[in-house]
Amino acid sequence: MRDNPFQFKQVNPEDIAYILGLLSMYRPISNELQEEFYKHAISIELEQGQHLLHQGDTCTYMYFIREGALMAYSMHNHKKITTYISVENEFVSSLSGLYGEQPSKEAIVAVEPTLVLGVHTTILQDWYERFFELNYIIRKVYEKYYCDAQERTHVVRVGNATERYHYFINSKPGYIERLPLECVASFLDMKPETLSRIRKQNAIPAQTPDEADLLHLVKQFMEETECFKEKTVKIQSVAARLGIPAYKLSQALNTAANTNFNDYINQYRVAYIKKQLSKAESLQNFTIEALALQAGFASRSGFYKAFKKLEGISPKVYLVSQKVFA
Mean pLDDT across the stretch 254-269? Predict the structure, then answer.
């Protein structure tokens, strides 16, 4: 096995708290297991094009993408076959080489600057023996992984190249603008020039709606896609999905809605949380912090700051005012 060129970096406790918040949505996590995560998790920063794992190596970590995007691929007869593309908030590993039992059949590479956190599989196996809740959580994670794998298989088998393109942009909104053309083309089993031609042929004519129409369009888009739940959603990606320049969207929000993009997104996140809190069972299953992570906030502090800015009171005071107790 070759040496990995990347260096482990100091883990940010907020990143661990973030992962624990996501996992606790499946099942509450004991304090002891939480302490184990803080003790044993590692953090790796990858540059674009840098490998997390090479084909033929053994994989000894389960990873979580905190920021960025990874692509897995295999080389066969000098052809690169992309097996999956994963972005932030997804768990990744090489199942064929997991636990170091056999060489991995695929490589994993960063397609943009990426931050991942990981836990060694030896430690994971120890946790399985000691913490029942982790077995349940990991089963749910694997279930999602296999559902995604089935979806990926369906994508590359759907119709001709044009039909695969349309299926991809509808099932993975924003990916086509965000990811390298070569990466998406490989995933869809077509040549980059073919993908480029199909994109041009199916391009939506540029339109310049007035600000009122644009705000209505954005509102409809937010309600349909709930893209505010994406932790790293940016004005550029939303504008690209709407087929308008980012500066036009910024201008409409500033002049017609008297707000900026971040506050606009946070309005939807806070509204989502308040809606969930109106359901009697919500806080029986989730803490308000877990709901905040589900709504798209990247940290507890960011959630509290945004909530107070928009509502004028803290989340805890709001809970009391609504006679809801965490």
Answer: 90
Give the CATH number, domain containing residue 299: 1.10.10.60
For residue 281, give the 3-state DSSP assignment. coil
What's the whole-model pTM score? 0.64
* pLDDT tens track for 117-174: 999 999 999 999 999 999 999 888 888 778 777 777 777 777 789 988 888 887 777 7
Instruction: Say if residue 39's pLDDT is above 90.
Output: yes
Q: CB under 8 Å, gap of 24 or more: what pairs does 243-250 form?
A: 243/204, 243/206, 243/207, 244/206, 244/207, 244/208, 244/209, 244/214, 248/208, 248/214, 249/214, 249/218
pLDDT tens digits for 6-26?
667 788 888 898 888 888 878
What CATH number is given to the structural domain containing 32?
2.60.120.10
Is the domain of 108 the same as that of 196? Answer: no
Does 43 lie in the same domain as 96?
yes
For residues 238 and 183, state if they share a domain: no
